Amino acid sequence: MRYCVGITSMAPDNADYRKRQENLQFELALLGLLAGLWGSSYLLIKIAVATIPPLTLIAMRVSLAAVFLLIVMWYQGVRFPKDWYTWRMFLIQAFFNSIASWTVLAWGQQYVDRGLAGVLNSTSPIFVLFITLLFTRHEAVTAWKLAGAMLGVVGVVMVVGLDALHGTGQQIAGQFAILLSAFLYACAAIYGRRFSLISPTVRATGTMIWATVCLGPLSLAVDRPWTLNPSASSIVAAIFLGLFGTGVALLLYFRLVRTIGSMGVASQSYLRAGVSVLLGIFILGEQFTQAIGFGLVTIILGVAVINIPSPTSSVKR
């Protein structure tokens, strides 16, 4: 009798476990897609800034994303919240996610080599980990996740090459700006947890509206874009960057903040560094080396360690 009861009680647990695993696999696939969109943004930015100043490019990026997301909202039939408190939260999220982070990153990249910039900008998960451990404590911080974060950094260094680290200590202001952008990304991943009751579409649209309001007039005042003569390739790159690298990417981002947590969504910074290097190989003809191959495997392992429940937590269940 006891034996039969034991078999019966295990069936729902097994079914629930399989469902969790399927859900996790789907969310990790979305994480890979997000990394692909943001990893390709580096190439698009490189093409666009050839004839479009960084500030104007960012303003175009957020404006196109805001229009795209408003259309998505209209199609879904969802509405904006009417209280000022939520809109103030959207402004703070926009500051972390785009207004400040993209501006300081664009400034820092002018003075730092691409490889070192990729390493410095991929440190968001480490910032998330220590902010969570020391201040917010909004999710579990384990040695397993710390190991994953460190593996990810090692993988990024291998992918971009150890030579990238030779510039460390030079152009301190530019390097600090890129680290600051990684810190702001970490703050965005943590702060985004506050929007759990608001749909990802509304969150993404609200933040991009604020970004447009702040960056649009600044671009007009500083760059006077009506005097520019951008090339067709720069314009196409900017459009793709706004619609896919920002609009679609933010829909995925805010969903993942809710489903896999701050540390999980921040781990895409490792993957996007790998995507950026792979695009350089396939599109720009850069050389693929054994170190890059090992680095990509290490990055994937680090992201897996961060997002897949640790053996200890599995036993506890």
List the helices and strands and how they pair.
Layout: H1 2-48, H2 54-76, H3 84-109, H4 114-121, H5 124-136, H6 143-160, H7 172-191, H8 200-223, H9 232-259, H10 261-266, H11 268-282, H12 290-307, H13 311-316
Helix pairs in contact: 1-9, 1-11, 2-3, 2-8, 2-9, 3-7, 3-8, 4-6, 4-7, 5-7, 6-11, 6-12, 8-9, 11-12
Shape: globular
User: Radius of gyration over alpha carbons?
Assistant: 21 Å
Q: Approximately what portion of the residues adopt beta-strand conformation?
A: under 5%
Q: Please provide the count of β strands.
A: 0
What structural class do you assign from the helix and strand content?
Answer: mainly alpha
Report on the structure:
- By secondary structure, this protein is an all-alpha fold.
- It has helices at 2-48, 54-76, 84-109, 114-121, 124-136, 143-160, 172-191, 200-223, 232-259, 261-266, 268-282, 290-307, 311-316.
- It folds into two domains: 43-112 and 171-259, no CATH class; 125-169 and 267-310, no CATH class.
- It is built from 13 helices and no strands.
- The chain is globular, with a radius of gyration of 21 Å.
- It starts with a helix and ends with a helix.
